[in-house]
Design a protein that fits this description.
about 475 residues; alpha/beta; FAD/NAD(P)-binding domain; 3 domains; 7-stranded mixed sheet; 13 helices; globular; binds flavin-adenine dinucleotide
Length: about 475
């Protein structure tokens, strides 16, 4: 085994490759094959071969790894993750809102504990390429071979697609000074610092177009930032620029915005951001507004584009989302939209393209919401499905058990002192060609959407899911 231990095996031991693996050259011989991706890792060391390799140590990846080991402790499972530590996006808006006790330590977790508890291995490395034909995963540290591959790599931002005229340097600069904070890492910390250093003035949050991670997140964030500004006596508004008029949990958020924040939160619909000038702290956008005339055939308003601009103190530019580039590296069939979700083999977590490649989490092509709770649910189903396969047993999701009540529960904190939250639940069904989810936003007994009981349930949910992953 030819690798640097300090770089690689911080968390667990990678198993030694089969003897033949040492003679494999990896990249060059795969370039002509149809399934091989175009680029190759420069490091062709063979690191080892594993029965099951999971790419991504996030909500989906850690769940599937631990549940595979719960199914059979003899399974040889490796998780490849590029980050040193786990950072939770769920509930992180309460960190921006400076709710009591919600400091950064509540969101960052060490991988050592679950690795030790469940006995899977972990490699800290960035995946740079996947060769499905050779069953190889290329990383900067070398090549890992697999029998079964599970993808849970989450999302990436599509700055290039959204702002085609922006240079690489501008994208890099804007993503640094106005981070989206939808991806685990340092983005939330930069956004929190920007809020801490802001003077009186407005905060702008931009909503991505198309499918994106945790659809209520920008709207919950507006509440938490407004609550922070109120606490800190910062004069200004939170402006939400939304390219559509869709608001996840819309009625519930609108109720909270007007009753808790008056006119402090302003939602501008059909507003598509066109440019950012970070030197003058100005966002420009086009807004579709009614001309006052009606379409003769449909009776609907005829709209026109109006160019507008707005100054900000803090910008949270949440760029359009797409599936992580890892999906593209695997050359899997994906949906035709701009997100490119992985097409699935019926109501299974096996991909439609390759029986040895599975997908879970936000990249999954089922009709279920992109959430940590859903990734957790999918991780458990996927582990059961693979365990059945490796034990030579038939497996399918039990039709008589549909719909699964509240397969997904997603909370959003909307108020502080007292803490109040809203929620959406999804019942999952698999009687069709893919797994689907049907949402419901319940009201509290007093007729309001938000309640202190739901805020307590949010904290309980968070403690529970983090406990499941890390203790
Ligand atoms: C602000 C916010 C609030 C949210 N609130 C909730 C909530 O209340 N409830 C809820 O259920 N969900 C919530 N979510 C959604 C939730 O965070 C995601 O749906 C969930 O993390 C998806 O899990 P995943 O495994 O697909 O991706 P992730 O958890 O993002 O994990 C992907 C992992 O893959 C790694 N990775 C990516 N590329 C590579 C590579 N090339 N090489 C190696 N590793 C790689 C990443 O570093 C990451 O650790 C929220 C999200 C946000 C942003």
């Amino acid at each position: 085994m030819n690798m640097n231990r300090r770089d690689v095996l911080k968390y667990g031991a990678i198993s030694v490759a089969a003897a033949t693996a040492a003679t494999m050259s990896g990249c060059s011989k795969t370039e002509a094959k149809p399934t091989a991706a175009k680029t190759c890792s420069s490091n062709k060391n063979i690191l080892g071969k594993h029965q099951i390799v999971v790419i991504g140590g996030g909500f989906g990846g850690l769940t599937v790894a631990s549940h595979l080991k719960k199914n059979d402790s003899n399974f040889d499972v490796l998780v490849i993750e590029k980050n040193d530590t786990f950072m939770s996006c769920p509930v992180s808006n309460t960190y921006l809102g400076k709710l009591e006790g919600m400091n950064v330590g509540k969101f960052i977790f060490d991988y050592a504990k679950p690795v030790e508890k469940y006995g899977y291995s972990m490699l800290k490395a960035e995946v740079t390429n996947i060769d499905r034909e050779a069953k190889e995963i290329h990383t900067a540290l070398g090549i890992v071979q697999y029998e079964i591959l599970i993808l849970s790599p989450g999302i990436a931002y599509d700055y290039e697609g959204q702002f085609p005229t922006w240079s690489k340097e501008k994208i890099s600069h804007i993503s640094r000074v106005a981070p989206g904070a939808l991806i685990p890492g340092s983005e939330h910390i930069i956004l929190e610092r920007n809020l801490k250093n802001m003077e009186d003035g407005d905060v702008i949050i931009t909503v991505p177009a198309g499918k994106f991670r945790c659809p209520p997140a920008p709207f919950e964030r507006a509440c938490m930032i407004a609550s922070y500004m109120k606490k800190e006596d910062i004069a200004g508004k939170v402006i939400i620029l939304n390219p559509t008029n869709n608001i996840a949990k819309g009625a519930a958020f609108k109720e909270a915005w007007s009753e808790l924040y008056g006119n402090m939160i302003e939602h501008i619909d059909f507003a598509t951001i066109t440019d950012v000038d970070s030197s003058t702290k100005t966002v420009t956008y086009t807004q579709k507004v009614p001309t006052g005339e009606k379409d003769k055939d449909t009776g609907s308003d005829i709209m026109k584009d109006v160019n507008k601009s707005h100054k900000y103190q803090v910008l949270n530019l949440i760029a359009n989302n797409k599936a992580s580039p890892v999906v593209q590296m695997a050359t899997l069939e994906t949906t035709n939209d701009s997100f490119h979700k992985v097409k699935m083999n019926g109501c299974s977590f096996q991909t439609a393209t390759d029986k040895d490649v599975y997908a879970i989490g936000d990249v999954v092509g089922h009709g279920i919401p992109p959430s940590g709770q859903t990734a957790n649910w999918a991780g458990i189903q996927c582990a059961n499905e693979i365990a059945h396969r490796l034990h030579g047993k038939a497996y399918s999701l039990p039709v008589e058990k549909t719909p699964v009540s509240a397969g997904n529960v997603c909370y959003s904190m909307v108020g502080d002192k007292p803490e109040e939250a809203i929620m959406v639940t999804h019942d999952f069904s698999w009687t069709g060609t893919v797994i689907t989810g049907k949402g419901n936003v319940p009201k509290a007994p007093d007729g309001k959407y938000r309640s202190q009981a739901t805020a307590k349930a949010l904290h309980d949910w968070y403690r529970g899911i983090m406990g499941d992953l890390f203790s």
